[in-house]
Amino acid sequence: MSRFLNLISYSDAIGRIKGRDWKQIDDEIITVSSSLGRIASENVAAKMPLPTRERSLVDGFAIRSSDAIGAQRESPVTFRIVGRKEAGSGVNFRISKGQCVEIYTGAAMPEGSDAVVMAEDSIQDSGTISITGEVSTGTNVSKVGQDISRNYPILQKGDRIKPMHIAAMLSSGTLHVWVKKTIICGVFSTGNELFNFSQDHLYNSAEPAIKAFFESQYIKIRMLGKCRDSEEDIEQKVSRWINTMDAMIITGGTSLGRYDLVPESLSKMAGQVFGGVRTRPGRTAALYSISGKPVFSVSGFPSSAIISLWLFLPGYLHSVTGLNVFDRVRMMPLASELHSKAGYTSVVPVKITRKGDGEGVVPVSHGSIRMVDLLEADGLVLVPDSVEGYSGESHVEVHEVSRF
User: Fold this and answer.
1) How far apart are CA 195 and CA 226, in angstroms?
2) Mean pLDDT by groups of 10 residues along the chain of 404 residues
3) Is residue 256 within a helix (H) or strand (E), and if so which, with residue range?
4) What one-character DSSP code corresponds to residue 94?
5) Domain ranges of the chain
6) Is 244 helix (H, G, I), strand (E, B) or coil?
7) CATH class of residue range 2-26+181-321
8) For residue range 325-350, what is the model confidence (pLDDT) as tens digits?
9) How many other β-carbons are positioned within 10 Å of the β-carbon of residue 397?
10) Beta strand 44-45 with 153-155: parallel, antiparallel or unpaired?
11) Host H or E run for residue 286
12) Alpha helices in 4-125 (DSSP H)
């Protein structure tokens, strides 16, 4: 029973993760078009402005704005059409006083022009147009660098590459980008109850649940199967796979039962980073290091396992990749009281409900988190260990349930 008598705080556990000398994830260069969701390992700035030349924003007529001075309904100004320019057209025009060029959206502006009159704002007649209002310089014109200026910082180290990052890089001259290699994380579950011979046979749901929740373009979860409650079997499983993985997760076998043997097994082959944390859920969560690679030991209950990894994986990911893990967080009012245990960092699932003319959140669990709680939850509230709940009028940070 002494295993969990000296639990450390959540902040202490995070400090130990961030302060550990983990084996870093290597870099690789890939095409920008295939980089969606990967973690950038370099800063990327625009190599050229976008657009590179002034271009028309509309279909109409390119003119010199100075020629339109004095135009009004009673005395329209007439321009002679001297050509046509489409996007991608190699034809170059230079217009003089009283001339215009028919131009289409995206086409480069003719030399000498500085404004575009929309087609519907002109009167066309046998090779000429007339306008009935003055036009300012730059009207309907996209300036050089208006979308992206040269050297604009598109991507920072540690950013997870999003669709607009890709569009901006390709548009401004970057075709290849350095990223972190995909993290390979193995997961296996322990427990005699997971095997058919057990009278209390349970389906091994923790592995696929972790894979579904945490796998992304930058981390691949490999399910390594189940393992009996045997120190020898657990040690063999870890030894067999650790060299081909960047990280490992073991579910089950972490509590105080007779057959909870993961701590004993790992203590023979790994250095312990922490064993037991004052979090609810996740009190029995532990972390070990083998050759600079993390081995997370979490509960066999899928909901508790997911919450523990939700709490601890980001610190590791930042340490080895520089990943800027930013939650999608909304500050929302509580619509009822929220209870937690002082001295423990608590994760409380909440559901969005109507509160007056707006929205508020109510807890869907006040104790152990059940699977149904996560099914019903719209978000999670992280309550610090120094807080013993919140009143019904408090505002709290609501984290999206899905984070990775």
Assistant:
1) 8
2) 72 96 97 97 96 95 97 96 92 94 96 96 95 96 94 96 97 97 96 75 86 95 92 93 97 63 87 94 93 95 92 95 84 91 92 85 81 89 92 90 60
3) none
4) B
5) 2-26+181-321, 28-50+146-179, 55-142, 329-400
6) helix
7) alpha beta
8) 766 888 999 999 998 888 999 999 99
9) 14
10) antiparallel
11) strand 286-290
12) 10-19
Dist. CA 286–CA 158, nearest whole Å? 26
Q: Which tokens sit at 30?
A: 């890939």
The answer to whether the beta carbons of residues 404 and 216 sit under 8 Å apart is yes
| β-strand pairing of 183-190 with 247-251 | parallel
CATH number of 28-50+146-179: 3.90.105.10
**Domain 55-142 maps to which CATH number in 2.40.40.10, 2.170.190.11, 3.40.1370.10, 3.40.50.720?**
2.170.190.11
CATH number of this structure's domain 329-400, picked from the four choices 3.50.50.60, 2.40.340.10, 3.80.30.20, 3.40.440.10: 2.40.340.10
Task: Count helices and strands (H / E) in the chain.
Answer: 7, 24
Angle at CA 366, nearest 5°, toward 256 and 302?
A: 50
Of the candidates 93, 92, 135, 143, the one whose C-alpha atom is nearest the C-alpha of residue 116 is 135
In 171-205, which positions are buried (b, 16+ CB within 10 angstroms) versus exposed (e)?
bbebeebbbbbbbbbbbbbbbbbbeeeeeeeeebb
Radius of gyration of the CA atoms of the chain, in A: 31
Please name the residue that has the structure tokens 């509230």: 381
Report the candidate in 192, 201, 204 with the shortest Cα–Cα distance to residue 301.
204
What is the rounded distance in angstroms from the CA atom of residue 196 to the CA atom of residue 119? 76
What pairing do the DSSP bridges indicate for beta strands 176-180 and 27-31? Answer: antiparallel
Q: Do 238 and 266 meet the contact criterion of CB atoms below 8 Å apart?
A: yes
